[in-house]
Amino acid sequence: MKPFELPPYPYDRLNDLRAIANERHAYPVDMSIGAPFDPPPPSVVEALSASGLERGYPASNGIAPFREAARDWMASQFDAHVDATTQIGATVGLKEFVAGIPHWLRLRDPDKDTVLYPAISYPSYAMGAELAHGRAVPVPLDENWNMVLDAIDPADVARASMLWVNSPGNPTGAISNLADTAEWGRSHGVPVISDECYIEFTWDGPADTIVKYGTEGVLAVHSLSKRSNLAGVRAGFYAGDDELVRWCQEMRKHTGMMMAGPSQHAAAVALRDQHHVEVQREIYRDRLALMITFLAEVGVTAPMPGGGFYLWAPAPEGAWNLATRLATDVGLIVSPGEFYGADGSEYIRIAVVQSNEAIADLSNRLAS
Question: Over 90: is that where the pLDDT of 5 sits?
Answer without folding.
Answer: no
